TrEMBL record:
GO molecular function: AMP kinase activity; ATP binding
InterPro entries reported in the protein's UniProt record: Adenylat/UMP-CMP_kin, Adenylate_kinase_lid-dom, ADK_active_lid_dom_sf, P-loop_NTPase
Similarity-based family: Belongs to the adenylate kinase family.
Family annotation (CDD domains): ADK
Keyword Nucleotide-binding: yes
Protein name in the entry: KAD4 kinase
Domain Adenylate kinase active site lid: from-to ranges: 38-73
Recorded name of the encoding gene: Ak4
Pfam families reported for this sequence: ADK, ADK_lid
Keywords: Kinase, Nucleotide-binding, Transferase
Native source species: Aegotheles bennettii
HAMAP family, alphabetized: Adenylate_kinase_Adk (MF_00235)
Keyword Nucleotide-binding: yes
Native organism taxonomy: Eukaryota, Metazoa, Chordata, Craniata, Vertebrata
Amino acid sequence: GFPRTLGQAEALDRICEPDLVISLNIPFETLKDRLSARWVHPASGRVYNMDFNPPHVQGIDDLTGEPLVQRQDDKPEAVAARLRKYKDAAKPVIELYKSRGILHSFSGTETNKIWPYVYTLLSSKIPPVLPDEEN
């Protein structure tokens, strides 16, 4: 997400005035598990997730047959440390947007269950884009 720090929020304020901020509250363990299940093909940057987007053959890129690697910062211990650091840095950002009355928070563990609520909020704030023939 962005902004992740108060400094980034202040920099954003200098170029625009956010009027809607979405915060997704996902349990620590869910985030840790998802991020720790991420593997990449270094040459292309293709990303696989062993839980919901695994390669056809475990540990092998679908297109090249080359080995996949897990980045150091995606290993469980590193993910846990990153999440703790993020939580500490993001807390003042959340409070800032909450105090402005523009923060909308959604909680859950599954995208397909959270998305309809986020979509409804966004649809109420952003007018639909009509095809050219309807304009």
